[in-house]
């Protein structure tokens, strides 16, 4: 460990969102925390679900965290440990490095294996359990083109099935919906949209100019 620089601290600050994301994904029975390895104060600088081990921001680095750091692996194998109140935890420790390959932090994940199964399931899929109709179909495409074409197909079907949209307005409506989803931020999206909708690239650009002009007003 050494005294962290401003650049090192910026890296750790950016990773705080990762802590939130992992905790949101795995629910209340998984503790996620970020250790700073600043030699002046090696401690927890971000934590979610700290009730699992009873820790909060400012808690000192653990002996196991130091051990994992010294093993030379950037991502540890999963290991079993226990919380202060006896919970069985399955843990993984990941080393965070700066541009000079120096370790500056540790991202630690501790899952409570003693959590009741039903509570664990509810924490993993709360929205699905409460309202299955709200499940969103996410497109896991293998390329940008495939993802765009699948999205276009879905939006096109939605517009074509809406009797309130006259045929003369349908292509603009489709382009507008794709624009609102941010699809035209992707490379070659206009060309792919023209191909998927079987309209000219000039028509796509005309609709986009109109949309951007309306936005500017």
TrEMBL record:
Membrane-spanning segments: none
Domain Transcriptional regulator DauR-like HTH as annotated: residue spans: 152-209
Lineage: Bacteria, Pseudomonadati, Pseudomonadota, Gammaproteobacteria, Vibrionales
Organism: Vibrio marisflavi CECT 7928
InterPro entries registered for this protein in UniProt: DauR-like (IPR039446), DauR-like_HTH (IPR039445), YheO (IPR013559)
Protein name (Swiss-Prot/TrEMBL): Transcriptional regulator DauR
Pfam families with a match to the protein in the record: HTH_22, PAS_6
Domain YheO-like: 12-117
